[in-house]
Amino acid sequence: MIEIQGVYEIAVRVRDLARAEDFYCGVLGLEPGLRDPKRPWLFLRAGGPAGMVVLQEDRGEWPTQHFAFTVTEAGLARAEKVLRDKEIPVEGPIVHDWIPARSLYFADPDGHDLELLAPLART
User: Which residues have C-beta within 8 Å of that of residue 82, sequence separation ≥ 6?
Assistant: First the structure.
């Protein structure tokens, strides 16, 4: 059996790389890593060296995706305020007893479903 320890990188198709960069860096706080203008792609660090999100500009048609970022409970509360202050529609927080975690849901400018997930202590 392969012993996977986590997810290091995800690729997200976006229609406008500059607009997506503004959102992922300016709103979510991801840090730019490598910019590849030939493709055009932008690698963003998500949580320092823990992993990356790669924004891939593609003006074609593609389905939207869902992915979640792990945050602390305090970080989730701060994020909710930031998102609401920026008038980004938010659903939640919602408690998932089976994980257990508390989550906020919202969309990026391309309609991808994003989640901020704060793990809760098991009782």
Answer: 27
Between the alpha carbon of residue 25 and those of residues 5, 53, 86, 98, 123, the distances in Å are 26, 11, 14, 31, 35
pTM: 0.92
CA-based radius of gyration for the chain:
15
- How distant, in Å, are the alpha carbons of 41, 60, 70, 73, 91 from that of 104? 27, 29, 11, 11, 6
Question: 32 and 44 in contact (C-beta within 8 Å)?
Answer: yes
Note the pLDDT tens digit of each residue in 65-114: 999 999 999 999 999 999 999 999 999 999 999 999 999 999 999 999 99
pLDDT of amino acid 104: 97
